[in-house]
Amino acid sequence: xxxxxxxxxxxxxxxxxxxxxxxxxxxxxxxxxxxxxxxxxxxxxxxxxxxxxxxxxxxxxxxxxxxxxxxxxxxxxxxxxxxxxxxxxxxxxxxxxxxxxxxxxxxxxxxxxxxxxxxxxxxxxxxxxxxxxxxxxxxxxxxxxxxxxxxxxxxxxxxxxxxxxxxxxxxxxxxxxxxxxxxxxxxxxxxxxxxxxxxxxxxxxxxxxxxxxxxxxxxxxxxxxxxxxxxxxxxxxxxxxxxxxxxxxxxxxxxxxxxxxxx
Length: 263
Known about the structure:
It is built from nine helices and two strands; from the N terminus they run αααββαααααα. It has helices spanning about 5-30, 40-55, 70-105, 125-140, 145-155, 165-175, 180-210, 215-235, 235-260, and strands at about 115, 120-125. A hairpin with a 4-residue loop joins strand 1 and strand 2. Helix 1 crosses helix 2 (about 40-55), helix 3 crosses helix 4 and helix 6 (about 165-175) packs antiparallel against helix 9. The longest helix has about 40 residues, at about 70-105.
C-alpha cells in the first residue's frame, strides 16, 4: 500500500504552487497570453502545464509553510517577478501602437477609432494594424518561445524564496517605459516629418492666397501622401521590429540579472 505523508504533500504543493504563481502572473500581464480573447481557463491551464514541466528542474525550495506570512511573502515575490516580465513585453508592443497613434494624428485619421477589447479604450485603426503586424511578426520569429525560455531561466537567476530584490532592477523597468515614446517616434518620424512639412506649406499658401480653399484640399493631400509614405515605411517595418524585439529580450535578461540582490 502506498502511503503519502503530509510532508510529501506539502513538498509537492510548494513545488507546483510557487512556480505556477510566477508563470500565471506573467501570462496575465503580457499582451499575447493576457489578451482578453484568451479565456482565463486557457491561461490557468497553460500556466499549470508549464509549472509541471519546469518543476523538476528547479533548485531546492525553501522550507516555508504555504499557509503562513512567510509563504504569503514568497507568493507576492513571484507575482512581482512575473508582472515585471509581462510589463516589459507590453511596453514593447505599446511602442508600436504609439507609432500608429502619431502617424494617424498627423494624417488626419484621429476620428477613425474603434473599441479595443485588450486595452478597454478606443484605439486608432493604424495603431491596431501596426499592433497586429508586430504581434504576428513576434510569433513568426519565435519570440514567444524565447520569452518562455527566459521565464524558465528566472528560477535560476531569481530563485524562489529570494527574500529581497535589488531596487535598481525596478528602476530599469521604469526607465524602459521611455521606449514607448522613443521607439514609437523613431518609427513614425519619416511620416510625421513629411506630413508636417506639407501642413506648413499649406498654411503658408493659405496666408498668401486666402481666396483659395486650402483646407478643402489639405485633408485629401495629407491622407494620400500619408498612404504613399506608409507603403514605403512598410518595406522597412520588419527590420525595425527585429531590432525592437532584440533590444527588449536583451533588456529582459539584464533586468533579471539586476533584480538579483547584491552579495
